[in-house]
Amino acid sequence: MVAPTVPAHPVPADNLIALLRALSDSLVLTRDQQHQPDAFDPQPYLAQSAPLFASLHGLNRAGQLRAKDCRASSQDARLEMDAAHLRLQNLLFERNHVEREIRSAEEYSSTYQDLPLHSLDELRELAAREEPPAGLQVPLPAGDTQESAHELMLARLAFELAERKRFEKERKELGAAKAKLVKENEVKKARLEELEKQLTDFVESAKGIQAKMQEEPGVAAAP
Fold first, then answer.
1. Residue among 47, 57, 44 at smallest CA distance from 17
2. 93 within some domain
3. Which GO terms describe its biological process (predicted)?
4. How many domains does the chain have?
């Protein structure tokens, strides 16, 4: 039986295995057909199988290298995917945080909303005077935009602050004046009490003198 011919060009691993199996079958068949098995020389078959095994080993080595490169590429891709996932989580966290901040700002109820501010009609009337009150921005911000409405609210708050400061100053001045009057009244009250005491002492002294005079003989009783 003729042994399989070894190809001169690279072939797939399945073909190499098929050639090796065919070569092995040919070797066994030829050996069995020999009348003297000890005289059978397997070297030609081994010589033919050597390049096949070398090619198969080369394919195996190349496959291992490709598998190693594939694992390295897979590891790099996995690391990149993990990094991308982490960046995505950070972005989602930041987005949720910003959304919470926006909702908090939209739902925030500022204290100025509960302040008894001057109405817009009152402000316009005050601004139209020849001498507007101190602290009032003249002319008042006008317009229908959100920015103009914000500026108008700032002007109202600034005027309200100026009015509160003025009222506080007047309150302190009135308090100081009241304290001064109270102190003066206390002084006058003390003086009046002193005069009343002196008058009482004088009356008591006069009564004593009158009683002594009545006790003296020849002194007529007071009418």
1. 57
2. no
3. mRNA export from nucleus
4. 2
Do 122 and 73 lie in one domain? The reply is no
What is the domain extent for residue 39? 13-77
- Residue keyed to tokens 């009057």: 181
